[in-house]
Q: What sequence folds into this?
C-alpha cells in the first residue's frame, strides 16, 4: 500500500525539524564562534555526537546515517582484510585515514570526498530528526576517520537545510527513517548513473527496511538513497509498504563516541534508546534488531571548500578565491 | 594551467552537493554554484538515461554548454555506484579553446581522486 501524502512534513515533523535546526544550528555556530574543540552531544532522535575541532566539524557519530567506515566497507571500496590491517595499526591514534591511503587502499582525494559526503549525510540525519538538547563537552572523543581540516559548520548546516528543502518540495517523498519499502509493479530499466545500484536496492526492499536501513546495508548515503527512492517510486519500481511508528518521548542518548549504528534492520527509535539528559551513558547500548559491525565515527561534510587539486586545474594567476565558500 | 578557467567544482551526483570548489567567479560563487550543482547532477542523470539501456554509444563522459560569454564543461568522474562525481569547470569563452579545454579536463580529472 502506497501511503498518500503530499509534501514532506506532517506538522509534528515540521515542528520537530525546526526545533532540531534551531538547537543544533545554534550550538554549532556557538562552537564556531568560540573556535571550540570537543564533543557536542546531541540528545534526541536519532541523536549523536558531533566532533568539533577548532570550531569546525571533523566527524559525526549518529545511528541515523552510515559513517565513512560503513560506506568504505559496505560499498566494497576498501576490502575488509586491508581495513582490518590498517585498523590494527592506526585506529588508536587517529591515523586511520592516512594509513588507508598509505597502503594504497584508497586515494586521498577519494577519501576526502567520502568523508565530506558522509559528514553532510549525518548532519542531514540529525537535522531531519528530533533534537532535545545539545551539550558541549570539552573533552574530545575518539573519532576514527576525522576530516582534517574540519568542515565549516555554517556550510554544513546550509547543506543540511538545502536537503530538507529539497525533500519538502517533493510531492510524494519517502521518509528515510520510517517508510518501509518494497518492490513496485514495474521492473527496473537497465543502467542509470546514480541509479546503477537499483538492483541492489530492490533486492533489499522487502517491506521491512527503510531508506536508512538499506543505506547502512549498501554503504550509500541516506539522503542520496532517499532521493533515489523518490525517483524509483515515481517510476513504479518501489512502493511504501508501511510506516514505522517513532516514539517521541523523552530525550535520548547520543551515540557514544566511536560507536556506530547497526547496519541494516535497526530502528532509529530503538537505536536512540532511552536517555537521561543529565547523564550521558558511557557504554554502548544494544539495539533491537541490530546486527553486524557497528564501529561508527563519522566525518564528512558538505562544505564547498577550497581544493588544491582543483586549483591546479585553474590557470595560474587567475586570482583564485582561496575560500570560495566565503564571500 | 588551463587558459580561461575561472572556477571548478566537484559535485556529487547522488545528492547535488558541492563537495569541493575553487576558483573565481565573483562574490556570488557559493550560492550560484550550489544552485547550479543540483541542476548539473540532474542534467547528467537525464543525459545518461538518454543513452539507451545498454549505452551502445558508450557511457556519458562530458557535457559542454556554451553561452556567448562562457563555456561550462562537466566531466563525469568514474566512481562507485550511487556515488558518481562530476567535475564542473567554468571557462571564459573568449580565452578558451573549447576542444583543448575538453581534452585537458579529461586528462587532469583523474588526479582529483588520487
A:
Amino acid at each position: 500500500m502506497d501511503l498518500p501524502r503530499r509534501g514532506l512534513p506532517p506538522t509534528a515533523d515540521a515542528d520537530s525539524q525546526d526545533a532540531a535546526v534551531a538547537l543544533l544550528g545554534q550550538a554549532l555556530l556557538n562552537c564556531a564562534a568560540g573556535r571550540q574543540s570537543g564533543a557536542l552531544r546531541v540528545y534526541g532522535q536519532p541523536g549523536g555526537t558531533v566532533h568539533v575541532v577548532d570550531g569546525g566539524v571533523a566527524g559525526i557519530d549518529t545511528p541515523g546515517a552510515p559513517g565513512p567506515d560503513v560506506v568504505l566497507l559496505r560499498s566494497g571500496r576498501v576490502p575488509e582484510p586491508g581495513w582490518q590491517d590498517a585498523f590494527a595499526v592506526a585506529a588508536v591514534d587517529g591515523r586511520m585515514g592516512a594509513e588507508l591511503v598509505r597502503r594504497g587502499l584508497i586515494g586521498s582525494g577519494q577519501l576526502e570526498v567520502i568523508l565530506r559526503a558522509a559528514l553532510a549525510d549525518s548532519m542531514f540525519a540529525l537535522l531531519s530528526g528530533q533534537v532535545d538538547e545539545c551539550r558541549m563537552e570539552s573533552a574530545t572523543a575518539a573519532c576514527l576517520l576525522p576530516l582534517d581540516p574540519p568542515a565549516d559548520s555554517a556550510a554544513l548546516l546550509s547543506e543540511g537545510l538545502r536537503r530538507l528543502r529539497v525533500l519538502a518540495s517533493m510531492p510524494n517523498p519517502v521518509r528515510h527513517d520510517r517508510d518501509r519499502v518494497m518492490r513496485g509493479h514495474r521492473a527496473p530499466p537497465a543502467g542509470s548513473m546514480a541509479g546503477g545500484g537499483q538492483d541492489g536496492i530492490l533486492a533489499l526492499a522487502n517491506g521491512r527496511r527503510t531508506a536508512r536501513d538499506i543505506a547502512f546495508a549498501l554503504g550509500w548515503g541516506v539522503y542520496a538513497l532517499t532521493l533515489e527512492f523518490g525517483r524509483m517510486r515515481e517510476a513504479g519500481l518501489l512502493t511504501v509498504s508501511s510506516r514505522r511508528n517513532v516514539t517521541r518521548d523523552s530525550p535520548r542518548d547520543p551515540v557514544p563516541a566511536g560507536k556506530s549504528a547497526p547496519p541494516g534492520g535497526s530502528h532509529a527509535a530503538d537505536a536512540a534508546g532511552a536517555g537521561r539528559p543529565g547523564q550521558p551513558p558511557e557504554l554502548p547500548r544494544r539495539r533491537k534488531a541490530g546486527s553486524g559491525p557497528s564501529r561508527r565515527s563519522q566525518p564528512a561534510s558538505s562544505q564547498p571548500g577550497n581544493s588544491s587539486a582543483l586549483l591546479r586545474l585553474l590557470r595560474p594567476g587567475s586570482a583564485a578565491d582561496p575560500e570560495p565558500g566565503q564571500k | 594551467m588551463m587558459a580561461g578557467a575561472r572556477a571548478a567544482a566537484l559535485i556529487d551526483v547522488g545528492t547535488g552537493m558541492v563537495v569541493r570548489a575553487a576558483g573565481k567567479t565573483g562574490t556570488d560563487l557559493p550560492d550560484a554554484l550550489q544552485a547550479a550543482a543540483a541542476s548539473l547532477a540532474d542534467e547528467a542523470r537525464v543525459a545518461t538515461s538518454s543513452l539507451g539501456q545498454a549505452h551502445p554509444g558508450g557511457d556519458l563522459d562530458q557535457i559542454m554548454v556554451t553561452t556567448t560569454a562562457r563555456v561550462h564543461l562537466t566531466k563525469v568522474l568514474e566512481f562507485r555506484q550511487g556515488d558518481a562525481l562530476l567535475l564542473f569547470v567554468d571557462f571564459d569563452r573568449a580565452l578558451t579553446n573549447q576542444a583543448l579545454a575538453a581534452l585537458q579536463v579529461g586528462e587532469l580529472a583523474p588526479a582529483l581522486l588520487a
About this structure: Chain B touches chain A through 53 residues (CB under 8 Å).
